[in-house]
Design goal:
Length: about 800
């Protein structure tokens, strides 16, 4: 820690060698020459430079050097006092050896002093020409084996090393001195000497003799300093990064400006801004929108090209300019031409087409009226989206499709605010911008597939879009100005209406599309699907064809759907085999027949299970509604010896389970009327199973089928294999109405059934059933379950005896 300096004759101060100087009395053993200092505290074991300027201080330093004596360094209480007085000095100081005395050319005097030991002033014995005091030297306490002091020593050393590492330029000698300190007093005084603290705080440390208290005080001051250094370092890093980025940006801008000036591109920017101003004037914007656009244009004029916001504002102005703000002209709608377009694009769907014609007629008579929002609801593949395209063709308007499936962010509808990086308008405004017309036909596809998440509910945003009373001032977050959507023809599509929120569903007129019959599918395949598949596979009409019998076989045995999507895939798959032959050099035309279908498509995937499943008592054919159309549903019942329990399987929902329990109770209550012995009910367990057990099933419409199956198994009478049934039952034996009649009847016809039993109170849905299906089906309208048993069950066969019944008799 300490350096040893010797005073050479050349370095010794020029002292007065007259008799007066030699007459100075000798100092006693406890007396010490006092060197007053301002704003400086010297600590034992530390070498520090001192500057002295007052005559008394110079005389004291010179006398100490001349005699080779140490000095007592005392700090002045008030540094503002020019003259030194004994009352203005602290009483605790440090005994110091003067290692070097230097007189600078400018007349200032400098000392290099090494602190040795603390002392306490007992009494000042002389004041002129310099201060002399009687002192009591203070010895450092013994450290000994104290673990507490050892812990303080390790903690203080760690703090000191951390503080030195945080300094921007740490002197290696100081770090070496900290590491070389072996005792707590040495380390505490060393840290206190170099600590960035006030002189008063350092004086307090000097006066603290107790090692534990002194170490704690130094540690607290050092901890504060470390925190300040950390914050300073972080601020410096952030400031430096900010300045570097700003300087880089300024430099790049200056270079860009110089390059543009050399290339003469300043004129280009002026021309660009002039073109923008002209485009804003020609866009036909409303007054408030044009005012907002010109305000942004003025901001753009004052902004350099390289500014971060320049591109954002330019994109915003381009969006405003490209939107169709002008009022569209009213175009005449030719109803006959519209009917021809619908007939050419779609086979069947007569009622749907008639409703669309009515819609177009209203739009023709009242083009500025508030027309209803149409929503086509039905299973996949029945032509909902293509109907929207046909409406656009019939009206002579642009068509744009907006897919809403999977949208779960409100910003997808209303747009993002321009404060966000990469902000865009919502899908509605983007669709209108793409169409380039404010009176376009906008298809809102899969409106039932919207979800909600942490970013809001998009279906709530759609309420304003689809409300004719509100959408005239629709406000997109990106545009920040109102946009009129009242001239847009909105058409929505959905598979399931249950998932659409009630307020949104209330804003739309629902038009339901059921599945197609086999005959309709045949016509659709012949007119649309086969030509489209030929073109997709690179074949000409004179090279390949598919006969009607082959199409019917594909429809009945390779697809089972309400729409025609899978049918188109299977036709295309069959034609791909033909395309391979022509690619290999075949020249003769090919006509795919029914016998060739298995060779091209493999084994039949679907079979007619109706006859097989209802060949035994206890099996009834029900009708079910699904999101992808109607379907047939088999109800199977059996009985075994038991105690009259009812078991239900097939992954049935709660409502369907209750229907089965109601049917079971109804059978029990009418056992005598149905010819069922009470012993059979009491000593038989009934098991009702609905096949396709992996598919969840629910709803009350299988009540009639379950009742019929239970009566069939208990009486041994078979259910007619050409009959399907649907309807809810009550405990009074009434048949209650159900929904989805059209889809269910179409599914029965598709499955090859010829008779359907329906609730009499559902007769209002009869007109919705396709005419072709009505002609080939026999309808039985049920008021009570007794009518269902009379129409569905065959006559009893005396020669047929149930093996299970024999088991019951044996048990008796």
């Amino acid at each position: 820690m300490t350096e040893s300096y010797s005073l050479s004759p050349a370095q010794a101060p020029a002292v007065d060698t007259s008799g007066a100087a030699r007459a100075e009395p000798a100092l006693g053993p406890d007396e010490l020459i006092i060197l007053p200092v301002r704003n400086f505290v010297l600590f034992p074991g530390v070498v520090m430079p001192l500057a002295v300027g007052r005559p008394a201080s110079v005389a004291a330093a010179q006398e100490a050097v001349r005699r080779g004596l140490p000095v007592g360094v005392l700090m002045q209480r008030d540094p503002a006092e020019a003259e030194v007085s004994v009352l203005g000095l602290h009483r605790t100081g440090v005994v110091a050896n003067v290692l070097r005395y230097i007189t600078a050319p400018d007349g200032t005097h400098h000392l290099i002093a090494e602190g040795q030991q603390r002392f306490r002033v007992e009494q000042f014995v002389r004041e002129q020409p310099y201060l002399v005091a009687r002192v009591r030297r203070i010895d450092e306490p013994e450290v000994g084996e104290s673990q507490d002091l050892a812990a303080r020593f390790m903690h203080l050393r760690g703090q000191a090393e951390e503080a030195l590492q945080l300094l921007p330029q740490t002197p290696p000698e100081l770090l070496a001195a900290v590491n070389a300190a072996q005792t707590l007093p040495t380390l505490a005084d060393l840290v206190a000497a170099y600590l960035d603290a006030t002189p008063d705080a350092k004086q307090d440390l000097l006066e603290t003799v107790d090692l534990g208290a002194r170490a704690d005080k130094v540690s607290r001051l050092l901890a504060q300093r470390i925190e300040v250094l950390r914050l300073s370092q972080e601020i410096d890093r952030q400031t430096k990064a900010s300045l570097d980025e700003r300087q880089r940006e300024v430099l790049l801008r200056e270079q860009m400006a110089a390059i543009q000036k050399q290339l003469g591109e300043d004129e280009g920017k002026s021309q660009e801004l002039a073109d923008l101003a002209e485009a804003i004037g020609k866009a036909g914007m409303p007054e408030d929108v044009e005012k907002a656009a010109r305000k942004e244009l003025r901001r753009l004029e004052r902004m350099p090209d390289a500014a971060a916001e320049y591109g954002m504002i330019r994109t915003y102005l381009d969006t405003l300019i490209e939107l169709p703000w002008a009022e569209p002209e009213d175009t005449a709608i030719d109803i006959e031409a519209a009917r021809g377009v619908l007939d050419a694009d779609h086979f069947g769907l007569e009622k749907i087409k008639q409703r669309i014609i009515e819609y177009l007629a209203v739009r023709k008579l009242a083009p500025r009226g508030k027309a209803p929002i149409l929503c086509f609801a039905g299973p996949p593949g029945v032509g909902k989206t293509s109907l929207g395209q046909s409406i656009a063709r019939a009206m002579g308007r642009k068509f744009v499709r907006v897919s809403l499936g999977g949208v779960h962010d409100e910003a997808e509808i209303r747009g993002h605010r321009r404060t966000y990086v990469g902000a865009l308008p919502g899908n509605i405004i983007q669709g209108i911008r793409k169409a380039g017309a404010r009176d376009c036909v906008m298809m809102l596809d899969e409106i039932d597939k919207m979800g909600s998440g942490v970013h809001g509910d998009p279906s709530a945003a759609m309420l304003e879009v689809l409300d004719p009373e509100q959408n005239g001032t629709f406000r997109d977050n990106y545009l920040g100005v109102p946009f009129d959507l009242s001239r847009v023809v909105f058409i929505a599509t959905a598979n399931m209406l249950e998932s659409i929120p009630g307020p949104l569903l209330d804003r739309m007129e629902i038009i339901r599309l059921a599945g197609y019959t086999d005959a309709e599918k045949l016509q659709i395949a012949r007119r649309y699907l086969v030509p489209r598949a030929l073109e997709a596979n690179g074949l000409q009409t004179d090279q390949a064809s598919v006969v009607d019998e082959a199409l019917l076989r594909i429809i009945r045995h390779y697809t089972r759907e309400a729409g025609v999507r899978n049918l188109e895939r299977e036709i295309s798959r069959a034609l791909r085999h033909v395309a391979v032959e022509f690619a290999e050099g075949r020249t003769e035309p090919v006509a795919i027949t029914a016998t060739q279908v298995p060779e091209l498509l493999g084994a039949e995937r679907f079979e007619d299970e109706v006859a097989m499943r209802v060949s035994l008592p206890g099996v009834a054919t029900g009708l079910a509604w699904t999101p992808v159309g109607g379907d047939i549903l088999f109800i199977e019942a059996t009985r075994v010896p038991g105690a009259g329990r009812l078991t239900l399987t097939g992954q049935l929902g709660e409502v369907m389970r209750e229907s089965a329990q109601a049917a079971h109770s109804l059978v029990k209550s009418r056992a005598s009327e149905l010819g069922i012995a009470a012993e059979v009910l009491d000593k038989s367990d009934i098991h009702v199973h609905v096949p396709a057990g992996a598919t969840p099933k629910d709803g009350p419409s299988a009540g009639v089928a379950m009742f019929t199956a239970l009566v069939s198994i208990l009486t041994g009478r078979r259910v007619r294999n050409d009959t399907a049934m649907t309807g809810e039952i009550s405990l009074r034996g009434l048949v209650l109405p159900v929904g989805g009649i059209k889809e269910k009847v179409v599914a029965a016809a598709r499955a090859g059934l010829t008779r359907v039993m329906l609730p009499a109170r559902s007769r209002r849905d009869y007109d919705d059933i396709p005419a072709e299906v009505r002609e080939q089906m026999q309808f039985i309208w049920l008021e009570r379950v007794d009518e269902a048993i009379a129409e569905a069950l065959q006559a009893p066969e005396a020669e047929v005896r149930e093996p299970v019944l024999e088991g019951v008799e044996d048990a008796r």
